[in-house]
Structure formats: structure tokens, C-alpha cells
């Protein structure tokens, strides 16, 4: 590991000398990349972490002395996900905001008690769209040279803030990319979050009823105002899941009543900080808990996927799978989105992507009866 980090740092230093303009780093040809791989190899890809051992997977103080909050410094990267931002600020993730998939999975299991399958599903999906398969590193925010040498374009390696991948329109506390920085917390939208909780949530909390209203409101607002709105697979799934997550994971596990107070919401979304004395969920949370809540939101305000052709002109996209078609969304990610960035990977790059695709499918199939698909063949 030490060897790899040293190698990465040396590589970055070498690149900084060889390619003074940042842009040109991303534009190396496939031949140059292959030469690079031949010379340096690719990073070792560890297997996904196992579930937390029985007896250590329960209620636990997670804002503890071993994980003190330290606000992100000027060189620390933060992005669109309030959970990962917070985990980085408490040291569950590297505080600079650049991490390997296995570190992210361990962090969300340890820090918030995501179930192992669910953690792997989120993480490998994001990594395949936003991470660097050569160095096995991903930024939880903007693109950074800290993730090392990029594979050839059209691979983006854009980090979680990369619009149009995992990050997308109609977020609850971030503006659509059309209007500005899609990754940064927006106070005006957070006031809308509070208003919705006050109006629809039990005792002014953000609960599943508030979530259903806010999710619909954010979609309707983008339909009316964002001429470039895209609301299709895979974004539809993350948008609906992320509306539900705070009612589960940001609620103190001792109470665990799916009612998020505004104070706790302020801590996670804005301050990127766990509330004082915060306990994680009392048991690992997998699809069996999340799926019915997502369906509840959808059934309250059903929608069909689509894109805007100009403001208030939402054109349905019947070729993209609907929210209810989980396996269709999995196939869309694997057969359309990922080959969009890696049209014909070869050699070690292909092996690395295939390995991550295998991990991704492992998580997908744990609680859903989907069939594995192979964008680059089976070998
Ligand atoms: C491996 C795990 C995770 C990854 C890779 C991930 C990634 C992301 C990304 C890329 C976004 C931006 C989507 C967008 O709004 O455009 C996001 C948003 C969000 N994430 Fe995560 N996330 C993870 C785990 C979690 C967990 C455990 C929670 C628990 C509460 C969470 C809560 C949220 C919420 C609430 C948003 C929406 C923010 C908003 O709409 O304002 N995420 N996440």
C-alpha cells in the first residue's frame, strides 16, 4: 500500500512536470495510456469489504472521540453527497475527500450502518461512473489530479460532482447544473426543505410524507424552470433513494423513528457534521428497508422519466427504464452509461472495469433477481 501511494505521488509529480496544463493530463492517447500501464501496472483492487461481524453491527455512538469533526480545509474535497461529506469530516473517510471504493463501503457501514449490499450497490455504481479504474481512487467531489493518471477519453473520472453521471438534476439542497454549482449546499433550497417539513412532516420533521412532497416539488420546479432538465435512468433511482435516505440514516439510531429534525438535517446537509452524541442505525439497512419507502414516494406522486426541450416542455423518454424497473436501470448503467465512457477498453483497464462490474452485480443481485450483463464480453 505504502508502495502504491508513493508511486501515485511520484506519478502525480512527474505528470505535473510533464504536463503543465491540467487539461492535457486528461487527454492522453490510448497508446500512451497503454505504455503507462505496461510500465506501472494498475492499482491492486481489493475485494469488497465483508458485512460488519455479528455483534458489531448494531447501535453505536459514531460521533465519538476517535472520529472528531474537523471542518474541511482549503485542500479537502467535498461534493454533492451530505453523507460522504460528513463521513470525510469525521475521518471515517480520508479527510481530503479522495478514497478507494472499499474505504467508502467500510465508511458507510461503520459510520451510518448501511447494509453491505446496499453500500456496495451505491459505491460501485458511483465508482464505475466517476472513479479511476487504473488507480482505484475516486473523488467525493470535483475532478482532481489526486486520483492519478486518467484512462483515455471519453472516460471522465470526474468525481461525484460530475454532472450527468450519478449527480443529476432536481436535488433537494443543490441547484441543477444549469443554474450553477450542482455540488454545493444551497441555503435557499434548504429553506424549501424546512418549509416542506413544516407543512407535511410530523411535528415539523422531515419524514416520508415530507420526502414525498419535496421530491415531487423539486421535479415540478425543474420542469418549469430548467430548459435542460434530464430526469431519466439512472438519475431517477438516486433522486428517489436520496430523498428517503435522510429519514433513515440521519436520524439517531436510539430513536429511529424515521423523523429527521431540522437541527439534525442542518448538521448533515450544511455543516457536514454529525450531531453531538450521534448514534448510527441499530441494524444494517439494506434494500428491504429502502425499496418500500422509495415506492411510497413514487406512489404518492408518480412520474414518467423524461427530459425538457426548453422550459416547461417535458418530453417523455419511453426508451429509458422507469423507476419500478430496477434490473432495467442496472442494465442501462452497465450497457449504456459505462460504455459511454469506456467504449472499447483493453488489457488491464478492461480487467479493472470488469472486476468492478462484477462487484456491482454482486450487490445488485443480492436482493433483486436481475441477470448479469457483460458490456465487454465475458473473458
Ligand atoms: C457509497 C455510498 C454513496 C455514494 C457513492 C453517494 C453518492 C451521492 C451522489 C453522487 C449524490 C449527488 C446526487 C445528486 O443530488 O445529484 C448524492 C446525494 C445524496 N446522498 Fe449520497 N452517496 C452515498 C451514500 C449516501 C448515504 C449513506 C446517505 C445517507 C443519508 C446519502 C445521502 C444523500 C442525500 C440525502 C443526497 C441528496 C442531496 C440533495 O439532493 O440535496 N448518500 N450521493
Automatic annotation (TrEMBL):
Q: Which InterPro entries match?
A: Chloroperoxidase (IPR000028), Chloroperoxidase-like_sf (IPR036851)
Q: Which cofactor does it need?
A: heme b
The highest taxon in the source lineage is Eukaryota
What GO annotations for molecular function exist for this entry? Answer: metal ion binding; peroxidase activity
Q: Which SUPFAM superfamilies match?
A: Cloroperoxidase
Q: Which residues form the signal peptide?
A: 1-18
Query: Is Oxidoreductase one of the keywords?
Result: yes
Question: Any idea where the Heme haloperoxidase family profile domain is?
Answer: 65-295
Keywords, in A-Z order: Heme, Iron, Metal-binding, Oxidoreductase, Peroxidase, Signal
Keyword Magnesium assigned to the entry: answer is no
Sequence similarity:
Belongs to the chloroperoxidase family.
Q: What is this protein called?
A: Heme haloperoxidase family profile domain-containing protein
Query: Taxonomic lineage of this organism?
Result: Eukaryota, Fungi, Dikarya, Basidiomycota, Agaricomycotina
